[in-house]
Specification:
Elements (H helix, E strand, L loop, with lengths): L2 H22 L5 H6 L7 H22 L13 E2 H18 L3 H9 L3 H28 L3 E3 L3 H5 L3 H25 L12
Antiparallel strand pairs: 1-2
Length: 194
């Protein structure tokens, strides 16, 4: 096998695995995903933040052990204004549709009709963007920062950025638990007698 085909097989394996665990966590359901915006079920926040922290700490550990050279990992370039607009469009789409691209694919594969409609909308939006790109190219390339990491942007060492994100995650998880506890409804068998 060539390197490209091995990479594609690895990507397929990782994608199927990620989708499986998203579905097992219930994140293939727009009801569960929408509950995040009502602050009644913050599973999406906890699962995704756990994935981010796991990858961040794993890369930091592998780098410290000399297994991974972080300088060889290609970073996407940052374009502040277009990416802010893209984030806003993504967020509105997530709230309205109830899915992000990954969870939409998981819901579609699980047979959910609403997810199929959302994925069809994402594909249509991608097509429209590709066709309109010549008109948007100047804006798309506006406010470039290049490939930059958050620690570089704020001027701290990478290990300090990793610790800050881990601390932020710990605080975020504690806050999420408190918020969810406020919205827990008593089960019918636990009601007190009048």
């Amino acid at each position: 096998m060539t390197g490209l085909s091995e990479s594609l097989w690895l990507a397929l394996f990782l994608g199927v695995g990620f989708g499986f665990f998203l579905e097992r966590a219930g994140l293939g359901s727009s009801v569960k995903l929408a509950a995040q915006f009502y602050l009644t079920d913050l599973a999406v926040f906890k699962v995704m933040f756990t994935a981010i922290v796991t990858a961040l700490v794993g890369l930091a550990a592998l780098s410290a052990l000399g297994v991974v050279d972080l300088a060889r990992i290609e970073l996407p370039r940052t374009f502040v204004l277009p990416q802010l607009v893209g984030g806003l469009v993504f967020g509105v789409g997530f709230v309205v549709g109830g899915y992000c691209p990954g969870t939409g694919c998981v819901g579609m594969v699980s047979g959910r009709l609403d997810a199929m409609v959302v994925v069809a909308g994402m594909l249509a939006g991608s097509f429209v963007f590709a066709e309109a790109y010549p008109l948007l190219a100047t804006f798309y390339q506006a406010t470039p920062l290049g490939p930059v990491t958050l620690p570089e942007l704020v001027g701290i060492p990478g290990w300090a950025g990793t610790l800050a994100v881990v601390a932020l995650a710990g605080g975020g998880f504690a806050l999420a638990e408190r918020i969810e506890r406020r919205h827990v409804l008593p089960s019918p068998g636990c009601q007190e007698a009048p």
